[in-house]
Amino acid sequence: MTSIPASAVTRPPVERGALAWLKKNLFRTPFDSAMTIIVLGIGVLLLAQFFQWAITQAQWTVITTNFRILLQGTYPADQGGRLGLSVALITLIAGISWGIWGKLFRATVFAFVGGVLIFIIVPAAAEGLSDAPQGTLSAYLSGQLAPLFSLLREPVMLLVGCLLIGYAVGRLGKRLNRKRAGRYTLIGWLVLIPIVFFLVRGFTDADGILPFVQTNRWGGLLLTFMLAFVAIVACFPLGILLALGRMSGGSHTLEFKAPPRWWLNPLQWLHALSIWWRNLGNYPIIKLLCIVYIEFLRGVPLVTVFFTANLIVPLALGDNNIDAVLRAMVALTLFEAAYIAEIVRGGLQALPPGQLEAAKALGLSPVQATLFITLPQALRIAIPTLVGQFITMFKDTSLVAIISLTDLLGISRSVLAQNEFIGRHREIYVFVAIVYFVFSYGMSYAARQLERSGSGAVRKLG
Questions:
Q1: Each residue of 401-410: pLDDT tens digit?
Q2: How confident is the model at residue 43 (pLDDT cuts 50, 70, 90)?
Q3: Residue 370 to residue 411: CA distance in whole angstroms
């Protein structure tokens, strides 16, 4: 048998480009082609109807008139700069994190540039249509869309600017020393949490630098963001501790060898109970409490937890003057920690047993093996599920309306009660949906960036 020289073996040609991608994913078979055409036709029809309504019939003055109320509720208008500074700081450090652990893709740049140009061009073009007769498309554009885009222009440009500046700083820090830059960024997040809280809440008298603002004046997007922000930061370490507590079992499992008719002997009952207790591990009480906590909170609805926390928190802390916002934060944190614990436990169970055995062979203690070997890998595996739970938590903040808190969705209902905006449900709910989508997609995009980076991706050998 004659051997073929290596130089004569060539790889089969691989089709690349947009047409090859469309053929592979959308038009691979006649059935796929038919389904693609049907779904595309339905989507185009629905989008066409939506855009026709949005640019010809919708009354966006319900947003422009109540924009400040939707964003910050009844927060003092003269203290709005504190909120803007808080948002700028968060966006800046988010950009730094993006620059260190992520990457700026070409599609993202086009999206940023296109969005900023739209918010600049639409109001500028509408200035020449201000004299158009009533009832025409030009009059609608100048009277409805242009004021909305003008109102959103400065906040959008501020956020994009802070994000890109932070990204540039993060890329610079990554080039100088990625490890040190990442460590300082994590410290910055930890320091920023109390800073933002004190900026929003204040701590001085009315004549001071940061006047104190009661939390019952928080509302709208401000309340939604603060509830989600505090709950995410607080429930994550609590969930990790619960997961570790539930998995604190020993490495050896005892088996109960039941004799015939053992249930008739009370001594055998005690023997079976003792084996079950010893199988719980070195810390059986802690494990049992963690199991009860996790299963109980995962078995009740969040609405029940909100009602219970509204009554139990003042009783537990011995103070009936605790505001409803703090009670809601405690309820959301305790509830979501149970779900985070199960997600982290799933990541820990997905690790091969050889990881822990190798740690023991290196002489690491159980605490060192958990902190440096198993837990980082488990969190890396659980990144998609964790972010999905955080997005769910952000949307679950709308349930605080049942304890008389006006988050973004709750304050939208109060806006619809105004006489001049009765019946404008579509406009207000479209705005709320866009806000929820932007924040949820931002968290999802950040998670994908983390997965692609060296911190979130599983390193490949070879």
A1: 888 888 898 8
A2: very high
A3: 45
The arithmetic mean of pLDDT across residues 375-382, rounded, is 88
Residue 218 to residue 357: CA distance in whole angstroms: 51
Nearest to 227 by CA among 67, 336, 313: 336
Report the C-alpha gap between 304 and 249 in whole angstroms: 31
Q: How far is CA 383 from the centre of its chain?
A: 11
Mean of pLDDT over the chain? 82
Span between the terminal Cα atoms of the chain, in Å: 33
Residues in a beta bridge with 204: 211
Tokens of 112: 């940023």
251 has pLDDT over 60: no
Structure tokens given for 285: 């009480």
Encoded amino acid at 83, one letter: L
Residue 405: CB partners within 8 Å, gap ≥ 6? Answer: 219, 223, 324, 325, 328
Domains of the chain, with CATH numbers? Answer: 76-212 (no CATH), 223-248+283-456 (1.10.3720.10)
Handedness of CA 325, 329, 332, 334 (dihedral sign): negative
User: H/E element holding 34?
Assistant: helix 30-56
297-304 long-range Cβ contacts below 8 angstroms, 24+ apart = 297/334, 297/335, 297/337, 297/338, 298/338, 298/339, 298/342, 302/331, 302/332, 302/335, 302/396, 302/399, 303/399, 303/402
Q: Per-residue pLDDT averaged across 136-163, rounded?
A: 79
Extract the tokens encoding 155. 């906040």
Each residue's pLDDT tens digit, 177-210:
888 998 899 899 888 888 888 899 888 777 778 8
Percentage of the chain beyond pLDDT 90 is 19
- Alpha-carbon distance of 140 to 134, in angstroms, equals 8
CB 208 within 8 A of CB 201: no
Our CA angle for 141, 144, 145, nearest 5°, is 60
